[in-house]
Design a protein that fits this description.
The chain has 565 residues and is an alpha+beta fold. The protein has 10 helices and 29 strands.
């Protein structure tokens, strides 16, 4: 019997990019695990906790530092007044804008000044998004799992059973999740059984398993999986494999419980108990009060999911409303976003691996079918009226559809980014080939190619973002020799990926193709039982992107000394 206690602690600073950019300042994470392990079983449990430290949202820091200097209404009023004066004086739009900015920006706090530093410190320590930018997160996760192998009891096949239990404790004090007044707790659990049996003189191995999982907010899921591996040839060095698997992906804590105001929109999760916990109160115009029957409007998740337009249709409407209101109204499309639910996949995979006449070869291919693919949907909810397809603009202001149009025209609406599923069946497929061979003496040449294709008919769900974010083609070529000289070796490789589209909460765009050269040399010191390595990534020096909105990746150098006593 082996008993293991393991604790890990980590702290540091980093820039994280999600819907905005966040500076993770002095964040702290800890994980503790206790495990009991025997010959045929294990039982383990662990806790992961985090503390956001002095982290803050960089975008809202800028916004609210400006608000410490001058409130929005004053700034926009001064800008608009100066712009109109410039236009009346005969200025073109560019000149009028320059005049308006210089007028409204007079006295702005400048970085480095005492006024700026004081405002900055106030903002980054204030968790209220309307006046501050501090990120508060003291969430925890508890997890346990167990497994037992019956190999010493049951002989005809190897049978294993197991299960897991996980508990989430969300605690952002209302800054990220909708937990301003109380913690959010929810659980999920699962159980499985697996059978493995060998046939045909142990050349054929069959594995079958069945797993059941249940989470608080969703129906249970069964996940059967089957696989076959056959070893052919006299030396059993030709290995063929094939599998069929079903799986699912539960929505994350963010998909379910986020309620995050990022200024121009609200990121909103769709757990049933989340929809009313996030709410905002807006003052209405005189026209809005007439239609709504009150001076204010309280907006929550029920408005976002139940009474909203697709954001793409509102953009198209706004572009045409000034010239052809009837045609513009025809472009409006009501959102029919459902609450997010588990994503499901059916996966087929085949492969072959062997060493053939000195060449190591590995070929694999897969085909996946996704249903209820999890992604984001941008919507706009009017403060009054009823969102509907192609509202009849000629019906008059007593019509709820026309009232919703007036809300859009008056700027009385709220934008949301919802977490939901696409109704469109999505397919992905791909294959990979890996080859390696010693060509001269101990020089080894390697080649890998991977192809990935994602089939999603955007026309059937134009506002849905799948976020596949994977290049269609990737190639890597390497050349190395661990015994170039006594105790001395090297490896050099080149990587290339094709251009591909990137979709995320932060930004969408195109990632250009990139070629990267990496190299490493290593020297062994037997007397010290150690190896010294020197290396560099992207030694060509041309910077490249991997994520839209993140920094360019340049050259990286490293040195290591590894001791193996």
């Amino acid at each position: 019997l082996e008993i293991i206690w393991q604790s890990k602690f980590g702290t540091g600073n980093a820039v994280y990019q999600g819907a905005n950019r966040y500076y993770l300042n002095d964040f702290f994470m800890q994980q503790h695990k206790l495990e009991f392990r025997g010959k045929n079983f294990f039982v383990r449990g662990y806790m992961t906790g985090e503390d956001g430290g002095h982290s803050y949202d960089m975008v809202f820091t800028g916004i609210n530092v400006n608000r410490k200097w001058k409130d929005d209404n004053t700034w926009f009023g001064q800008y608009a007044g100066a712009y109109i004066q410039g236009t009346l004086a005969g200025m073109n739009p560019q000149q009028a804008n320059a005049l308006a900015r210089s007028t409204a920006d007079t006295g702005r706090f400048l970085p480095g000044t005492a006024e700026f530093k004081n405002a900055f410190n106030q903002v980054i320590n204030d968790p209220d998004v309307l006046s501050g930018s501090r990120l508060v997160d003291n969430s925890k996760m508890y997890h346990s799992d167990a497994n037992y192998n019956f190999r010493d009891i049951i002989k005809f096949a190897e049978i294993q059973v197991g299960g897991s239990f996980r508990s989430y404790e969300l605690n952002s004090h209302g800054r990220i999740y909708t937990d301003a007044t109380s913690l959010i707790n929810y659980n999920e659990y699962g159980a499985y059984a697996q059978l493995m049996k060998k046939f045909l003189d142990d050349r054929m191995k069959f594995t079958g398993s069945l797993r059941y999982d249940k989470s608080k907010n969703f129906d249970g899921n069964y996940s059967p999986r089957l696989s076959l591996v056959y070893s052919a040839g006299e030396k059993r060095n030709h290995n063929f494999r094939g599998s069929f698997q079903t799986g699912f992906r539960n929505p994350t804590t963010q998909d379910q419980y986020i309620g995050f105001n990022i200024g121009n929109a609200v990121l909103l999760g769709s757990a049933p108990d989340n929809l009313t916990r996030f709410n905002e109160t807006f003052s209405l115009s005189a026209e809005g009060q007439l239609y709504a029957g009150s001076a204010t409007k309280i907006m929550n998740g029920n408005d976002a999911y139940g009474n909203s337009y697709l954001a793409s249709s509102v953009t198209a409407f706004s572009a045409m409303a000034g010239t052809d209101p009837i045609a513009a109204a025809a472009l409006l499309k009501k959102s029919r976003a459902n609450y997010v639910k588990p994503e499901e996949v059916k996966a087929f995979e085949v492969g072959y691996r062997s060493i053939f006449e000195g060449t190591s070869i590995d070929i694999n291919g897969y085909y996946n079918i996704y249903n209820n693919f999890i992604g984001n949907l941008n919507v706009v909810s009017p403060f009054y009226g009823t969102a509907q397809d192609n509202p009849n603009i000629a019906a008059g202001v007593a019509d709820p559809g026309v009232q919703s149009i007036r809300a859009l025209q008056n700027g009385e609406y709220r934008a949301y980014q919802l977490y939901t599923n696409s109704d469109v069946e999505i397919h992905s497929l791909g294959f990979g080939v890996g080859l390696s061979r010693k060509i001269i003496s101990d020089f080894e040449l390697g080649l890998n190619y991977n192809y990935a294709q994602f089939d999603f008919d955007q026309a059937k769900d134009p506002s849905f973002e799948a976020g596949f974010n994977t290049p269609k083609h990737r190639v890597k070529v390497s050349l190395g020799n661990d015994k170039l000289f006594k105790n001395f070796g090297f490896n050099v490789s080149g990587r290339w990926n094709s251009e591909y589209e990137w979709e995320s909460n932060f930004a969408d765009g195109t990632i250009k193709s990139a070629t990267v050269i990496d190299a490493q040399i290593n020297y062994g010191i037997p007397k010290l039982k150690s190896v010294v390595k020197l290396g560099a990534a992207n030694i060509g020096g041309k910077e490249y992107y991997q994520v839209i909105g993140a920094g360019l990746i340049g050259q990286q150098y490293f040195a290591s000394w590894t001791i193996n006593p």
